[in-house]
Specification:
The complex is a heterodimer of chains A (296) and B (316). Chain A has 296 residues and is mainly α. Chain A contains ten helices and no strands. The relative contact order of chain A is 0.15. The chains are: A mainly alpha (296), B mainly alpha (316).
């Protein structure tokens, strides 16, 4: 135990929090329990979604109006059916693939654009930096949901447009966050040493700054995916993202809204799926934050 | 201080100008010919020309902007295609409804978030402290529209305690009591996320502050714990929270869209969504402009409040 806390202290000192005391192990484990729960749920969701083609599910788009709004545990329909008699389990699983893929792609887009901008802005400083910061200021002057709505308003409703909208709306957050970390890192002695031995800017960014940034990126990406799943499902719910009959989770909730009274399960199930996915991503993010010793 | 405050307040003007430029640009960023987008595929050259004329699309862009802006500052945001009438009165009526909803959520979420955050920081390590953070994890992970639907299923459908939608009952005269009853569920649905974000932030901030030397000194002087927290720690604790709260107002003003649609609340958010779905650009512009301007003003107010609380902030 002593060794563990000593190594932990060394590590934390090496990073940016020199006087962060090592936490009590019982507390850490207790917190990790939630994190472990998150990872297990996340893994379960991902495995089920990946195995979808092997599960011999009914066609998620096949309608059967004689069997509409069946409750869960109906023979042949484990989770029941929706208003068109479509199998909810199948829609849930196939729709989950869309929802999570959209979240991942949107995060990658946001990070893909935000990271280079933040690196340049944070490391180069000067006029370019202040220009980039003013631009993010203006983007942040729009509440992000409004910004996403505006982008969809310009480009028209649709899943791809919704994906791009939430990605773009999240770029300024990302730029700000990464830039402030880059600023801290670039004043570390090892970066200054790299500069002192005559490394080029690109080399410094790639070999000195980017590796120290990786743990932050991992944590940010994990929580960002959950965040963007929430946002795109929101746009789909409003009818601005995925369009029927596509079984995206937010769109499924929108379709279920008129039937809250007679068949609440049609809404409860996809909503629960969004919630579980996002919770598991958040808990995993928290755990990673603990393990990787980063603070965002 | 006063000088900085004036400077900061005056800075609202250029910010609003830039934002107005962006809002104006929306109409020109629509891919394709706007007139064709509006009229649809079945059009004659005459109708197209008429639409272009009525929107002023034949003029140079900067002239269009100046015209639009000069009208906007005089309260004329143009005519809505969908409502066949001026945008501003409709936007303002809807805005009042949204403000009621967002204000209610704010009044509920922020104090509760601060309380939960501080308490769970004080009881860190105990079961209670951990348990108090559970609802905050739910709050940041649950879509507000889903929370709204669950509330409807439980409180309107199952127990029939509260109405499931609308702002007042159609069959009765609108009364304060009636509006409050209709307000409860949407306020709760909208409050989930800001409550959770504030509680988590306050907790982190409290953990930070409670480690400070001056807190230990206060304890060592023999002051009682409650006094240390609410007199000594709270000021430093709340500084980062204020800027967060102003961000949450932005969230509330725009996330109302998600909740308003669930509860058929006649607010600005559902109006934006409707205007986007019907491609009613002047209406979208009007809604966006109002929300953004309010948000800028709120942000400025938060900055000034922060400044008055924390003299260490530089008057840059």
């Amino acid at each position: 135990m002593k060794e563990y806390s000593a190594s932990l202290r060394n590590r934390t000192q090496a990073v940016f929090e020199p006087n962060r005391a090592s936490r009590g192990w019982s507390r850490k484990v207790r917190r990790n329990l939630a994190g472990l729960f998150g990872i297990v749920v996340l893994a379960a969701i991902v495995v089920v979604l990946l195995l979808a083609p092997l599960l011999r599910l009914p066609d998620p788009l096949a309608q059967d109006l004689t069997a509409s709004l069946e409750p869960p545990r109906t023979p042949g329909h484990l989770l029941g059916t929706d208003q068109f008699g479509r199998d909810l389990l199948s829609r849930l699983i196939w729709g989950g693939r869309i929802s999570i893929a959209v979240g991942i792609i949107a995060s990658l887009v946001a990070i893909g654009v935000g990271l280079p901008v933040a690196l340049i802005s944070g490391y180069m400083g000067g006029r370019l930096d202040s220009f980039i910061m003013r631009t993010t200021d203006i983007m942040l002057a729009f509440p992000y949901i409004l910004l996403a709505l505006v982008i969809v308003g310009i480009s028209g409703p649709g899943l791809l447009n919704a994906l791009l909208a939430v990605a773009i709306a999240n770029i300024p957050f990302f730029v700000r966050m990464i830039r402030s970390i880059v600023l801290t890192i670039s004043h570390q002695p090892f970066v200054e040493a790299t500069v002192a031995v005559g490394a080029t800017t690109v080399y410094v960014l790639r070999k000195a700054i980017l590796p120290s940034l990786t743990p932050y990126l991992v944590v940010a990406f994990t929580t960002d995916v959950g965040w963007l799943v929430l946002e795109t499902s929101g746009l789909s719910f409003l009818g601005l993202g995925a369009q029927p009959p596509l079984p995206e989770w937010g769109a499924m909730l929108a379709e279920a809204r008129p039937y809250l009274v007679i068949a609440p399960h049609v809404a409860v199930i996809p909503g629960l799926a969004i919630f579980l996915l996002v919770v598991s991503l958040n808990l995993t993010g928290d755990l990673l934050q603990d393990v990787l010793d980063v603070e965002l | 201080m006063a000088r900085y405050a004036i400077k900061r307040i005056l800075s609202i003007i250029p910010i609003c100008l830039v934002l107005s430029l962006l809002v104006f640009a929306m109409i020109h960023l629509v891919p394709g010919d706007l007139a064709i987008v509006l009229v649809g595929p079945n059009h004659t050259p005459e109708t197209l020309a008429k639409i272009r004329e009525s929107l002023g699309l034949t003029l140079p862009v900067h002239v269009q902007y100046l015209r639009w802006l000069s009208k906007a500052v005089r309260g004329d945001l143009g005519d809505s295609f969908y409502l066949h009438g001026p945008v501003l009165p409709e936007v303002l009526t809807r805005f009042r409804a949204s403000l009621l909803l967002a204000g209610g959520s704010f009044a509920f979420a922020i104090p509760l978030g601060i309380f939960v955050g501080v308490t769970s920081a004080l009881r860190r390590g105990s079961i209670l402290g951990q348990a108090m953070m559970f609802p905050t994890m739910v709050g940041i992970s649950i879509p507000p529209f889903y929370l709204g639907m669950l509330l409807i299923i439980v409180f309107s459908v199952r127990f029939q305690w509260l109405p499931s939608g609308g702002m007042f009952s159609v069959t009765e005269e609108p009364t304060l009591r009636g509006i409050l009853q209709h307000l409860v569920l949407p306020v709760l649905a909208l409050a989930g996320a800001p409550f959770a974000v504030v509680a988590r932030m306050v907790r982190a901030s409290a953990l930070e502050v409670l480690r400070k030397d001056y807190i230990r000194t206060a304890h060592a002087k023999g002051l009682n714990g409650r006094r240390v927290i609410w007199r000594h720690a709270s000021k430093n604790l709340l500084i980062p929270v204020i800027s967060l709260i102003s961000l949450q107002i932005g969230y509330l003003l725009s996330a109302t869209a998600l909740v308003e649609v669930v509860f058929s609340w006649p607010g600005l958010g559902s109006l934006i969504v409707q205007s986007i779905l019907t491609r009613d650009l002047p209406l979208t512009q009007g809604c966006v402009l109002v929300i953004v301007c309010v948000y800028v003003v709120v942000n400025t107010a938060a900055d000034l409040l922060q400044l008055s609380l924390d003299p260490r902030i530089k008057y840059a």
